[in-house]
Amino acid sequence: MSTAAAHRTHDDHTHSHGEGCGHVAVPHGDHVDYVHDGHLHKPHDGHIDECVTSGHTTHVDHDHQHGEGCGHVAVPHEDHIDYVHDGHHHAKHEGHWDDH
To answer: What is the pLDDT of residues 40-63, one digit of tens each?
Structure first.
């Protein structure tokens, strides 16, 4: 299950994300995202990227249903909610769960 992250820079972002910055830190694969204004920011090479995925990666054999009280952190992400699960994000999509 691999996800390909698109490199979409968040322009004019003067805030530095990191420990104590005031935004929720969410582990995501090999980095940490910061929840900011309904999307996820990822510090990268001296600037901030929008943490987005390209393509469609289904999480196969995912029988757990995410939602209120499921035990996983809910993270607003653009027009939907991701759930942090095993170091990656799950998003409901057309009757199954995607890896974000």
So the answer is: 888 778 777 877 666 666 777 777
